[in-house]
Amino acid sequence: MHPLILASSSPYKKMLLERLNIAFSCYSPDIDEAPKVLESPLALAERLSQEKALAVARLFPNTVIIGADQVEDLDGEILGKPGNHEQAIKQLSAQFENYLRADHPYDCAGSFKAEALGISLFTAVHSNDPSALIGLPLIDCCSLLAEFGLNIP
Residue of 43, 47, 53, 112 with fewest CB within 10 Å of its CB? Predict the structure, then answer.
């Protein structure tokens, strides 16, 4: 069996590969990751994956090389790594702008529609009744209706 090298310095990619419980090493390829003019996000990800693998393969012949890359795509626009807090805010603000234009939550408390795309803005929701986010806590409502003899179902 040939040795395995992950052509990356990413701790995230390393962590994922470690889940497989196989022996491998990591080597950081030295390539320019800037997108080319009019390069699509998919083409960029494919090109960078290949270039990383080839750069490491030149140094380590007879080795299996894994080259991988991901590119964030926002409506065809490539979103690179922000690099700092200010740039991250700019990138995430674009997400909010797109959400507002897509969902039009202007008539919703908190400016979000949990029943639509607004749910994508959250990592967790803590509630005794998830329908309360949409405006009517159905669990409590059903209990109250039962008190009035309206059992559901």
Answer: 43
pLDDT band at 19 (very low <50, low <70, confident <90, very high): confident
> What's the topology of domain 1-74?
Maf protein (3.90.950)
- C-alpha radius of gyration, the chain, whole number: 24
Q: Which of 124, 129, 123 is nearest to 141 (CA)?
A: 129
Cβ atoms of residues 46 and 78 within 8 Å: no
Active-site entry in 69, 75, 103, 129: 69
Residues 46-103 pLDDT 10s: 999 999 999 999 999 988 889 888 777 777 788 777 777 777 777 767 878 888 888 8
- What secondary structure does DSSP assign to 73-103, as a single string? EETTEEE----SHHHHHHHHHHHHHHHHHHH
Q: CA 99, CA 110: separation in Å to the nearest integer?
A: 13
| Domains in the chain: boundaries | 1-74, 82-122, 124-153
Q: Which residue has the higher pLDDT, 105 or 150?
A: 105
